[in-house]
């Protein structure tokens, strides 16, 4: 296990270097000049050239990348073109809201998805099974921005039960729970649908296994067969989906944060892309990629905890 973790961390270093190169080149190739945006419509050509020189944009692109990479190796993500503040400081300020939203959305997805999948498997071809399958298909198909706008219209505007947007307090407080409920449902619905489908198919496969028939033949109570023998063995592919979806939720917060006016990393990324704030976009993508890889590493470790037969030697 320790050897596997060390190998994955070494791979993480090369992966992040590759991501920085792709994002850096993509941002510099994309149309738009950050110096023109900073200077505004009244900026002269000499003003724009001066801004280019101040930001280091007049250097060859490969030199700019090497300077950026050198800064990362020294723990410096650079400074925002727009605010002139440290990129790490800007991201750190907004990161808690994004993490809260991702965690709350995953909690919603697990609470809805796992029980729905188990019930569908146990009641195969019943009306509960067909209802769960239909709702799962709808959950995957409905776009986040549409669902978010619909929930705001119904629960915030018409019924006035929940706030329209914003996230000012931690989600485990009552006020924070009310603020994050609609965004979490919006973001977690698609993940809940995928978790439900995976839980159902995995449970159906395990229920028909020989060891389950043997447990029932030995007189083990049905609820013990389901919760001890079936569920634990069915959890491995479900954990995979949960891990991958949690990483995806961090990227998916971009749209949801815009809809609900949440000051998170996703919204910061949208604003930075619009203003061609290269260092901020690169820092945000680097952070999301790092968290995604770490989450997948944690998932691999959880595999071994769920099923000791799994070996990474």
Describe, in plain words, how this protein is organized in 3D.
The chain crosses the membrane at residues 12-30, 101-122, 134-160, 180-198, 234-255, 285-306. This is Nickel import system permease protein NikB. Its main location: membrane. Residues 95-303 form the ABC transmembrane type-1 domain. There is one protein chain. The longest helix is centred in the last third of the chain and has 38 residues, at 222-259. Helix 5 (87-122) packs across helix 8 (174-207) and helix 8 crosses helix 10. The chain is mostly helical. The chain contains twelve helices and no strands. It has a single domain (87-306), classed as MetI-like (MetI-like fold, Orthogonal Bundle), CATH 1.10.3720.10.
Short description:
By secondary structure, the protein is mostly helical. The chain is built from 12 helices and no strands. The mean pLDDT is 80.
Secondary-structure blueprint of this entry?
Blueprint (H helix, E strand, L loop, with lengths): L1 H28 L4 H6 L5 H11 L5 H13 L13 H36 L4 H15 L2 H15 L15 H34 L2 H8 L4 H38 L5 H10 L3 H29 L7
The coarse overall form would be globular
Strand content: under 5%
Low-confidence stretches: none
How many discrete domains? 1
Listing every helix as H and every strand as E from the N terminus to the C terminus, the arrangement reads HHHHHHHHHHHH
Task: Quickly give the CATH architecture.
Answer: Orthogonal Bundle
Specify the oligomeric state: single chain
CATH superfamily: MetI-like
For the residues shown, what is the average pLDDT? 80
Looking at the structure, the CATH topology is MetI-like fold
């Amino acid at each position: 296990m320790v050897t596997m973790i060390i190998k994955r961390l070494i791979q993480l270093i090369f992966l992040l270097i590759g991501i920085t190169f792709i994002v850096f080149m993509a941002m510099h190739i994309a149309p738009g000049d950050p110096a023109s945006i900073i200077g505004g419509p009244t900026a002269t050509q000499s003003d724009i050239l001066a801004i280019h020189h101040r930001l280091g944009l007049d250097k060859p692109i490969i030199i700019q990348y090497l300077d950026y990479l050198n800064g990362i190796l020294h723990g410096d993500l650079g400074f925002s073109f727009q605010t002139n503040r440290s990129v790490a400081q800007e991201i750190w300020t907004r990161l808690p809201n994004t993490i809260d939203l991702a965690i709350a959305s995953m909690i919603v997805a697990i609470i809805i998805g796992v029980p729905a999948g188990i019930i569908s498997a146990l009641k195969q071809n019943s009306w509960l099974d067909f209802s769960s399958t239909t709702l799962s298909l709808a959950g995957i198909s409905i776009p986040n921005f549409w669902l978010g706008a619909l929930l705001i219209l119904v629960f915030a505007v018409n019924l006035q039960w929940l706030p329209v947007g914003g996230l000012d307090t931690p989600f485990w407080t009552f006020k924070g729970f009310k603020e994050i409920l609609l965004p979490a449902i919006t973001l977690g619905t698609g993940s809940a649908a995928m978790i439900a489908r995976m839980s159902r198919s995995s449970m159906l496969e395990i229920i028909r296994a020989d060891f389950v028939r043997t447990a029932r033949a030995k007189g083990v109570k049905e609820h013990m067969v389901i919760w001890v023998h079936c569920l634990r063995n069915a959890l491995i592919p479900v954990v995979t989906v949960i891990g991958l979806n949690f990483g995806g939720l961090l990227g998916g917060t971009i749209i949801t944060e815009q809809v609900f006016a949440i000051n998170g990393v996703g919204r910061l990324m949208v604003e930075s892309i619009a203003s061609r704030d290269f260092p901020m976009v690169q820092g945000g993508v680097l952070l999301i990629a790092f968290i995604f890889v770490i989450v997948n590493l944690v998932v691999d470790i959880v595999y071994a905890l769920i099923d000791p037969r799994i070996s990474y030697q």
